[in-house]
């Protein structure tokens, strides 16, 4: 009865076997078919009974994880062994053998071996790769096998092609690798010294050649530090010498060749030549010689004599000084000698290093481990007390500045004007840089009471000119009252050593009284440019500061209700604005009696009267016996009890002025454009409308302003740029678009004519201002008093 086919119950060795192929009896060697040796395996590649197959490559112990091929596991790994070889040297009296040192490299990935011999200088041998990389067979009788990793160890000998190499050491990686695969590594073995190299070294030590080979290789230093420069900030204090001073320097140390250059920082107007190089780039000796050596004076060797055939003017050789008597021993500054706080000798000049840049700090920190880079304080000593120079008083000849220049130097020089201020403040373009004020002469003479003047202040040179407008049948000539010149302030001594003080731009503002060479002028008003200039420079003109002016009004908040009722009484048409004359002086509206004794303030009495007028509808109350003009005290002036100046009042009026009607402005521009068209006989307005209709793809009857302007320019519309810009700005809407039909229809002087321009007279352009007593311009026509009350007191409309 047969046993069941279960594991352990069957003696059939083919159970579980998958490979049944037979190994062949023939193989190939050098492309020649020949019989296989006795190592032929059995069926399926398994060894026969009693057969031991020798391994053809290194077998490494298996580790944990998946198996990978050796050429993957040991990629780029090399075992390095140090070995030497005893080589016999025949026919040599000095030595019978030589010791040659080798490096044996074993590659675990494919069991290949490479042998290199390190190059020795002047050895006389061909060195380098002794055996190229390949697999090496074992010496006979095992020449059918190759060297594996197990054949190498410290203290063993290996034979490569009949040459015996003795291994005396290996590197750390090789030692760890052998230990991991189970090989016990022997300790290092002492290596013998080559007798020939020993004898040669002893001979060279005792023999001094005439011209020894001295290698001075600076290429490595150049390649490593090229472009790297240490920067130090230096100070040379030469103030102890005559006409000497403190000199700021910058020292550059070039790491590539240990040279130093020094540049000088020249301040402005130093009086020195504009040569920044203080020391050209060269090596700097620590101990400077007493004199500068001539070219060729410093040499390593000196030529003593020449010998040879001098008949042919040709020398066969020369004798040199072997003792180097002409050599000069100089010590130069290195990077290790430079640090903060160190004083170096620059050819006899003591230069202090007090600071350095960031690259220098990082270099010294990485190379020398220096952490402290505190800069050295090198403040100059306090200057001696300056002796006050006294000048003689002004003698009355010439100007004060010219007289002072004669006292400063032996050769008088003219006084220098402030040229920078002249170039900045001189008139150019639309900026005149001239402050113009309307002034009135303050005098007791009845003839001069109504004289009007224009005072011009020139910002470029602080000069003043006074001009009087010519009035017909006035009995006064008029014209230039004072030529352009600087005006001194009153009350100064004439003959004194100091320069006189002159009237400045900050001294002129509306409401002030100015003394011009003995004549008193009260400044009543100013032109638009002057007011804008003063409001833009509130640091110089505090009276043009709106915030300061409104703060003075806020101090009288208890009277805000009374002030509001006064303005409402003056605004009979309820337009929420009053004209300038009423805002400043209400005398044209109301004449009132003298107030009773129980009314403490004129404002309260004016309030009672305005209430009465509001109920009765009367325009004026007149007392024939006694009339007191309350309106001569202005509303805001009396409201602030005189704290509000004239300039501050004008600033408030300009800020809260109501916008004027621009219809007249548009009519004036259209009339001006019609006049231009008539002169040029331009009538082609329909083509403009056709072009705009073509451009208007969406049929909205509007086009952007830039497109209208481009069309007018391309069609050569006979209008100037300023006039065209003004017309376009009047017709454009909030989205910067223009209704082209209405625009060009308004410009068509044939279909839509407008009245021609009339030459305006001088008297019609001026507004009658009652508080001046004569014609003069006013800051604004109407003032929005409700916005003023809201911003100052927070009062809303009732």
Automatic annotation (TrEMBL):
Entry GO CC: axonemal A tubule inner sheath; ciliary basal body; sperm flagellum
Coiled coil ranges: 546-573
A Pfam entry, by short name: DM10_dom
Organism taxonomic ancestry: Eukaryota, Metazoa, Chordata, Craniata, Vertebrata
Span of domain DM10: 75-182, 226-368, 431-538
UniProt keyword annotations, A-Z: Cell projection, Cilium, Coiled coil, Cytoplasm, Cytoskeleton, Flagellum, Repeat
Function: Microtubule inner protein (MIP) part of the dynein-decorated doublet microtubules (DMTs) in cilia axoneme, which is required for motile cilia beating.
Name this polypeptide is given: EF-hand domain-containing family member C2
Gene name as annotated: EFHC2
GO biological process, alphabetically ordered: cellular response to leukemia inhibitory factor; flagellated sperm motility
Location relative to the cell: Cytoplasm, Cytoskeleton, Flagellum axoneme
Listed SMART domains: DM10
